Structure formats: structure tokens, C-alpha cells
Amino acid sequence: MKLRVRTVTLDHRSPLLDLSPVHDAVAWVRDGEGLVGWGTAARIEPGRGADRFVSADAALRDLASDAEVEDHVGLPGTGLVGFGSFTFDEAAAGSVLLVPRVVVGRRHGTTWLTAIDPVGADPAPDPAPQRLPSPPRDRPRYAGSSKPDVHWLEAVATALDRIRTGDVGKVVLARDHAVWSREPFDPLDLARRLTGRFPSCHTFLVAGLVGATPELLLARSGDLVRSRALAGTAARGKDEARDASLGSALLASDKDRREHAYAADSVREVLGGFCSDLTHDPRPTLVRLDNVQHLGTAFTGTLAAPHTSLEIVAALHPTAAVGGSPRDTALALIRELEGLDRGRYAGPVGWTDPAGDGEWGIALRCAELAGARARLFAGGGIVAASLPEAELEETRLKLLAMQAALGATDDAS
Amino acid sequence: MPADSPSTPGDHLDAPDAALAAAVADDGAAPFDLDGLAAEVGATRSLLESVERAGLLMAHHLDADGVKRYSAADAQAVRAGMTLLDAGLPLAELLDLARRTDTAIREVAHHAVDAFLRFVRDPVRGTAGSDDEATQRLVTAYEQMLPATERLVAHHLRRCLIAEAAQRVDAEQITGEPADGQEPAEGRGGAAR
Lengths: 413, 193
Fold this sequence. Notes:
The structure holds 2 protein chains of 2 kinds. Chain A has 8 helices and 23 strands. Chain A has helices at 52-65, 149-164, 187-197, 240-252, 254-274, 309-316, 327-337, 388-406, and strands at 3-9, 26-30, 33-38, 42-44, 67-71, 82-85, 96-99, 102-107, 110-118, 141-144, 170-180, 202-206, 209-213, 216-221, 224-235, 275-280, 285-288, 292-303, 324-325, 348-352, 358-362, 366-370, 373-382. In chain A, strands 1, 2, 3, 5, 8, 9, 10, 11, 12, 13, 19, 22 and 23 form a 13-stranded mixed beta sheet that branches. The longest helix of chain A is centred in the middle third of the chain and has 21 residues, at 254-274. Chain A is globular, with a radius of gyration of 21 Å. Chain B has 6 helices and 2 strands; from the N terminus they run H-H-H-E-E-H-H-H. Chain B has a two-stranded antiparallel sheet. The model of chain B is unreliable at 1-7 and 181-193 (pLDDT under 50). At the A-B interface, strand 10, helix 2, strand 11, strand 23 and helix 8 of A face helix 3 and helix 5 of B.
């Protein structure tokens, strides 16, 4: 299939998500910048397997090799791009890399529009002249879980037994809520609300998977790479003093620092193998969000040899923030105990261009929307000092936050 | 009753208060240890441990070897919780409700005991002609008031539950099915209940 790709500057100040003329858009936005696309020029389905990342990468390069590209802007994200969302488990189907017909983007205050036209195709829809109205909303209504949470609690207790016997150091166990509603869930509308509530997170939307993640799995721009690992969580305080004391308790908590160290170490080991230099925060810092605060470690490095963002993502995934440590033992334990098809939850989500530049997060705090039904997910990192009932409560609060974001009112809490 | 509460009334008390303390001690049988309780109700030990750590299951007393013992009433309470789970209430929500109940009930219990001590015991101790009379009046009052208080609280909770349910079911009627008639559900929403 031959593509004509043309990027031009766009004189527009509106939030990128407000430019979408369709409700089922694709998006990767943070702090007002990023990429939003609509329509489908190509849908790449790389199938199952550990090579699903590089297969998708290769398919995008194939498209690019036969594309006429006219790029008048020349920033990361201009020209041909694909929006990807990959399954957590290599044995699961459902990974996808979407090339939209139209992409609007903004970086360092410059806004652009890329039209991606298969030769002979009908014209793609223009940006919306005004923000699409929010459709009527009902609240999300509980329909059940893949595994009753009383059994999930037992799974956490079993994981703790394995941690005590030394089989595994950390394992992340997740659970889900299926919900239904009297009105269809609207992906664009939910993404808009998430950007409002979590401006410093990456809000993503790819093929019905919508969420906001504070974690940056990998960003590549030329030979520079960045990553930010997050693990270890505390609540926000109602006032500054309480907030600060919860934050210092988190920084001082052995349990949370250990949980964080597993995640940061797994990123450092992998990126260290790709980079000629790799620097990172000497110790975790606090990353504060609307509803929780996390321990975070930021990494920057220079690639020693050319590798695409998806090649590095393939090596990073799953980090200990979503799998565990040691990785293979943790993954086997997740398959044995979790009783959940994670689908694309906890998998890489983001965008890439054919040259391999891109930005990837991990699909946490997200919902998988399908008409008036949705699945919400939440997980917790189980380490030696974890208590099953505390992990159950943490996931309950995370699920409530996502239900509030999907809910009928805007005062999500 | 907390596991670390004294199982025999202190001998520093005078006769009427010692008799009251003995009545309060509730030294009914506690035939189960934690494994026995789990077997009795058909739950796992790890579930009961979690519930106990959450402060929602309290041992009746510690036996001479320091092992926690549980009564038949404890077993009944756990069974009641499991009935709620079987009816579909997720465990996480049940634990949240139990914590809320614990907070509310502890405050009521504090004030109820305070009222008993100030308005029943103090007058008895100030007006009884003899220790024997004081003892009898105190123990009788306690034995009548405890079940009466239980009945009052249980009845009020039931009334509140029914009134709330009537109001909410009316205010939040669900008409019709999920609005996804056009879309295949992909088997995703219909997860196991």
C-alpha cells in the first residue's frame, strides 16, 4: 500500500484532544503536548509472541519504505507515526499498531497536522471546528471480576509464601472489574477528563484502551533515551503538612524502597546494555499526582548502537513494576495465581516513527472500553513485607479512582 | 473481647465492682483455635488472618499457652460474613464496610458504657444499703441492659438499612439493559460473578 504523508504547521491553540472530529481517536498527550490522531491508514496486528514488538516495527518500516513523505516541520512525532498498544503477556493476542489518517501534534509550542493518505483513498475528516460535545454519561456499574477477590487475597498469600521460601523477590498481582453502563463509554471524552485531572501524566488512547500513566517506560529521540521507573505508593494528604509527612514516610519506608528498587534495577540493567552512558537519580524522589504519590527514579542515556524504541521496549518489558523479580519466575507465578487475562493492561503503550523515535509508557490506571461495557484493572507489587488485606485495599482504591473517572459526575475523587 | 483483657476480675476491686467485672468477663466457651475456626466455617486460615489483622475478627481470649481461642459466636459472625460474600459482595467491599462499622460501633460502645457507669453504677453505689444489695442491683442491671442494648442497636441498624434501601432503589431505578445492543460484548464484560 502506497502512502502520501504530508506534515504542515497548524495555527491552533486548542487542546489537541479537542481537534478530534471522532470519538474513537488515538492519543498520547501530556501537559498540553503530544499527538492525537483519527481515521485508519493502516492497522498493524503483529500477533502473539515475544517478537510482536519488532514485527510491528518492521511492518511500520515497510509502510514507510513505500511512502512519499513531505515534512515541513521536522520534530519528533511529525511525518509517518504509529500508535501502539501491546499485550502484557507474549502468549496473548490483541497487540496493535495503528497508523491514523490524520495526526495533530504539538511540541515546544509548535502545532502541526500530518495527513496520511493511502493512494486513492477518500479524503480524511478535517479537525473538528469546535470541541465535540460530551455525550450523556451514566455511571459505571459493577458486573463482576475475573476472579472473586476472596480468591485474589488467597493468591497474594500464596505469593507471599513463595517470597518467604526465596523463589521470588517481588511479584505484581492484578485484578479486574468488569463494568457496564446505560450509556456507551466515550473514549475521547474519558481521555479529555483524564488530561484535566492528571495533567502531568501521559494520557493514552489506543483502540479503546484509555488511561493516564505517570510512568515513562522509554522515550527515544535520535540516540538519546529517557525512562522513569515508578513503584512504591502512598496517599496524598488533605493538607500540606499531612502530605509532606506521608511523602517522607514513603521515602523512608523499607518496604516501598525495596519494591521500588526492584523496578529501578530492572530498568537500569536493561538500559545499561543499550547505552554507552546511563545516568539516573542517585536515590528515588517523590512523584506527586492528584490522588497518590510514588517513588520515582529517572534515567537518561546515550545509545551505544542504533536501536529503535520498540526494540528497547521489547527488552524492557515487563519491568519489575508490572511483572516482578526475577522476571521469569514472577511471570510464571502471575500465570499460575492471577486468574486474569491482562490483555493490553500493564503492556507498553505509546507511539513510534519508522526511524525508531518514539515514547512508550506502561498501560496502568486504564480502562478497556467496548461500547457500554468496560474492564478496569488495578495491581499491586507484592514484596516480603506486604499484607494481603492491604494490597486488596490498595487495589480497591485504585479501581474506585478509575470508576470515578468513568463516572457520571466530574467531581471524581 | 480483646485477647489481652484479663480473664479473671482483679482482686483490687471491692465486692460489687468485682461482681460486675466477673459478669463482664463473658467466660463462655471458646472451643476453636484459628485452624479450628477455619475448618468450622469453611474458610481458609489466610483469609481469617487477613480479617483479623484488619481488626475485624478478635480472639475471645488467649489460652494458657498463648494460643488465640474463638467462640461459637465468633464462628457465627464469620459465617454471616461468608453469607455476604456468597451473595456476591466482593471481599474488599465487605472489609471496607466492616472497618466503617467498627469505627461507628466503637464510638457508640464508648458512650454506652460511659452512660452505664455514670447513670446506673454511680447511683447504685451511692444509694445501696449494703455491698450485697449493690452487687445484686449492679449485676441485674448489667444483665438486663446488655441484651437490651444489643436489640436496640440491631433493630435500629435494620430499620436504617431498610429505609436507605427503599429510598435508593427508588431513586436509582435501572431501566432496561446495558446500552450496547449494537455491539458484540466480546465476552469481556460478562466476567464471572
